[in-house]
Each structure stands twice: as structure tokens, then as C-alpha cells.
Amino acid sequence: MLFMLSLALLGGICATAIHWMAPVHRTMDLIVPPTISALYAGLVIALTRRPQWTVGIARIALVAGGLALAAPAWLYTLQATLTPGTLLVDTLPPVSSLFVVFLVMLMIFVPGRLAFVLAALGWTTIALPVLVYLLFHREEMWSARGTDLLMAYGPVSIMAVVLLPVQRGLAGKIRRLSTERRRMEMLLHRDPLTGAQSRLLGERRLREALGRDAPAGVIMLDLDRFKAINDTYGHPVGDRVLQAVASGCKELLRGDECISRWGGEEFMALVPEIDASGLSQVAERLRSAIAGLAVAPVQAVTASFGVTMIEPDDTLDTVLQRADRALYRAKEQGGNRVEAAHGQ
Which segments cross the bilayer (predicted)? Predict the structure, then answer.
């Protein structure tokens, strides 16, 4: 709104200067442009100081713009009709382009059907008198200025009123499609139950880490005796356990570290820029945090961990297989422990 008001103010200042420099001075041309310029300057100041007044300022600007365009249209049309030898094409100020701008502002700042009603009212009070006059004065209508007025007040103004809502509708549809696309991407990238990253995104991040020449490690964790939790307390409690585990792990991981739900009660964490000792320490912190979770009525929640560093010649399968073997060793030794892959 501030941008549009500034443009309108600039247009009013230019119109004022043009009319003052013109060889023939007409009273209305010397009054309306500076008056509307002063009003728009005041609205710009008001908008910068009171942004919450935007709607009211927009309405004042539109009403003032409509009156500023309607006054010369009626005055000079009546003058040309009643005064022999006076031609409308010679006396009407160059406001036809401003009328199109006025319609565009209406369609932008006024919502829904009201915009069409006000556009029709504006066309009736501003454009119609000029068009009726030209139809009854064919010699003026077919002059260069007459055809320009005929196009601006006729087809061009109608196109502005029709095409702008179409454009607005297309823009709204594009925004909705973009929102839907983001929602679908979120569904693909986020596990809906736990909020952790999906396996699809986890695999993508792991492939990216495999392609980088930088140290990184993988932590696989699996909840101990999770089937017994589901069987004893029911799946809703099991879901709460999974949510608590995912939330607790995310709180302990840095921003460049990610955790993905790998399937069922299994999670995978990718830790970049770390060595083998640091990787085991991260896994131990996660193990301790899970063991300290309180999810009523479950008495204890624990998890087994397998960790491995990414080797230079690793593939997605080889690094996951090493982490899985370490995880199974942790399970075989009673769970609630961290096991590193052999050689680390």
C-alpha cells in the first residue's frame, strides 16, 4: 500500500508540474493535481506512522482517486457539450491511463464481488460520460486522442477488471498447490507418529554423507522388549514410548545431526564431523537418556545401540550391515548397551 501511495503521489506531483508549465492554465487542472498530491502525501505519512490504519487509508486513497478522475471527466465533457467550438480531446487532461491504474488498485485492495461493484461504479462515473460524448462526436472519436480515450475507457479498462481477478485466482491456486506440495514433502520426509525424519530422508542423508570426504558415523538403536510393551499395555502406550524416544533423542542431537525412524521400534542417527570415540559417547548419551524416560505405566524403557564409522569405500548396504551386526551383539548381551562395529 505504501508503494502504491508513493507512486500515486509521484503521479500527482508530475501532473501538477505539467499543468503549471502548460501554455494554457485551466482552473481545475491547477487545483485537482496539487490537492490530490497533498492528500496522498498525508496518507503516506499516516501509513508510515500508523500501519494498522492500512485498510482505512486504502479506502480514502481509492475514494480520492475516483473523485479526482470523475471531476475532470464530467466537467470537461459538459463544457465540450455546451460550449460551441470546444473539443473534449483538446481539453480533457491525460488521465485515461490513471483510470486504468485506479481500476487495478480497486481489484487489488478491494475483496471479492465488492471490487466488481466499485469498478462498475467507477467506470459509470468516470469512463461512461467520455465514451457517450465520443459516440455522439464522431470526428473527435476518430482523432488520435479520441481513439486513445476510446481504447483506454473501453477494452483496456474492461480487460483490467476481468484479467486481474483471473490472475489473482491463478496465484491463489498456485499457492494452494505449493502448500499441498510442501505438505506431501513433509509426509515423505517426516514420520507421522514420532516426528522424526522418515527412512526415505534418512537414506538420502546417509547417501550424501557417503559421498562427502568428511568423517561421519551411524548409530542404529532398537528398543528392548518393545513387543512386550505393546502386548502388556496396548499399542497407544507403545506409540507414546516411540514418541518419547524420538523426542528425547532429537533434544540431545545437534542441528547437523539427524535421527530417522528406520522401521517399527528401530531408529538410525547420522552424526557428521565426529571420530569413533565421540560417536560412542553420543550413543551412550542417547542410551542414558532413553533409560531415564518415564512413560506411564511402562516401568522402564531401554534400547540397544550399534555404532559404526563410515569408511571411504562404504556403500549404503555395507555401513548399515556393520551397524546392524553391532546392534545385534548389544541385544545378545542383554540390551541397554552400546556396541561398536569391529575394528572401531
Answer: 31-48, 60-79, 91-109, 116-136, 148-166
pLDDT tens digits along 215-230: 999 999 999 999 999 9
| Domain architecture of the chain: domains with CATH | 2-182 (no CATH), 199-340 (3.30.70.270)
In SS3 terms, 98-166 reads as HHHHHHHHHHHHCCHHHHHHHHHHHHHHHHHHHHHHHHHCHHHHCCHHHHHHHHHHHHHHHHHHHHHHH
Rounded to whole angstroms, the Cα distance separating 79 from 17 reads 24
pTM (whole model) above 0.85: no
Distances (CA, A) of 143 to 15, 21, 137, 213, 295: 23, 25, 10, 75, 86
Closest CA to 41 of 57, 63, 21: 57
Q: Is 284 helix (H, G, I), strand (E, B) or coil?
A: helix
Q: How far apart are CA 166 and CA 175, in angstroms?
A: 14
Q: For residues 273 and 279, what is the distance between their CA atoms, to the nearest angstrom?
A: 10
